């Protein structure tokens, strides 16, 4: 029983701690900065213009900060869109980093985009497979087939976790090979803020890792529903 509780605690920590860390870093650096000349949206537009990416737009979103490769749009959350904070400026730079990747045909970004499109379909298929397991047991009366079906469903759900995790190199590139050099070369961030900016860029890059960790809860939820 003790070992089971330790494993459960470890599993929950793995699922929730990355997201908690990302949120805490963003919150820590979200205070308004009167010394900043513009908001996150204004800074994103400035960087896009400077890079010659005039076809890329900037708009507000409720779905979290991201760059949409199909719409060619940098989307920022309300807090980062309208605030003059270190978090807003750095997150905007990170998302513009993705626009820079897109403009240069960065292959890992294209691969990540394809994987993202497949992730939703895979989650749907995995859910259908596992929901159908009890029905197969009633109709076929073959428990071993249900076990195979459950295994397939769990594999599909695990693939979703993997798809989130493989995006990390793309995110790190956007943060530290695109955004950071721009921030340093343009002297947009004061030297005293650079350590915090690097922390924010790391948090921005690990947002998808946090999503992957939370995806583990889907697997745990299905195991509980099916009482495995």
Spatial ordering of strands, largest sheet:
1-3-2
Order of helices and strands: HHEEEHHHHHHHH
Q: What is the beta-strand fraction?
A: under 5%
Low-confidence stretches: none
The counted number of beta strands is 3
> Largest sheet at a glance?
3 strands, mixed
The helix content is over 70%
| Radius of gyration, taken over Cα atoms and rounded to an integer in Å | 21 Å
Overall pLDDT confidence: 83
Supply the number of helical segments. 10
Q: Globular, elongated, flat, extended or rod-shaped: what is the shape?
A: elongated
Write the layout of secondary structure elements.
Blueprint lengths: L1 H27 L11 H11 L6 E4 L5 E3 L4 E4 L1 H5 L3 H18 L3 H25 L1 H8 L2 H23 L2 H18 L8 H12 L1 H19 L3
Parallel strand pairs: 1-3
Antiparallel strand pairs: 2-3
Helix pairs in contact: 1-9, 1-10, 2-4, 4-8, 4-9, 5-7, 6-7, 7-10, 8-9
Notes on the protein architecture:
The protein has about 230 residues and is mostly helical. Helix content is about 75%, strand content about 5%. The protein contains 10 helices and 3 strands. The protein has helices spanning about 1-30, 40-50, 80, 85-105, 105-130, 135-140, 145-165, 170-185, 195-205, 205-225, and strands at about 55-60, 65-70, 75. It has a 3-stranded mixed beta sheet. Strand 2 (about 65-70) and strand 3 form a beta hairpin. Helix 4 (about 85-105) crosses helix 9, helix 5 packs antiparallel against helix 7 and helix 8 packs antiparallel against helix 9 (about 195-205). The two termini are about 15 Å apart. About 30% of the residues are buried.
């Amino acid at each position: 029983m003790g070992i089971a509780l330790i494993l459960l605690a470890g599993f929950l920590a793995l699922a929730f701690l990355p997201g908690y860390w990302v949120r805490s870093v963003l919150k820590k650096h979200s205070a308004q900065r009167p010394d900043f000349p513009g908001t996150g949206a204004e800074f994103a537009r400035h960087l896009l213009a400077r890079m010659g990416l005039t076809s890329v737009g900037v708009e507000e979103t409720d779905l979290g900060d991201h760059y949409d490769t199909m719409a060619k749009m940098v989307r920022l959350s309300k807090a980062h869109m309208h605030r003059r904070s270190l978090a807003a400026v750095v997150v905007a730079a990170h998302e513009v980093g993705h626009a820079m990747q897109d403009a240069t045909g960065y292959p890992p970004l294209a691969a990540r985009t394809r994987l993202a499109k497949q992730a939703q379909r895979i989650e749907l298929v995995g859910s259908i497979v596992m929901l159908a397991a009890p029905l197969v047991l009633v109709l076929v009366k073959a428990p071993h087939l249900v076990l195979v079906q459950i295994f397939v469903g769990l594999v599909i759900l695990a693939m979703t976790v993997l798809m989130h995790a493989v995006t990390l190199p793309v995110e790190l590139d956007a943060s530290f090979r695109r955004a950071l050099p721009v921030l340093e070369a343009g002297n947009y961030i004061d030297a005293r803020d650079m350590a915090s900016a690097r922390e924010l860029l790391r948090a921005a890059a690990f947002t998808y890792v946090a999503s992957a960790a939370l995806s583990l809860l889907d697997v745990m939820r299905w195991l509980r529903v099916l009482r495995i």
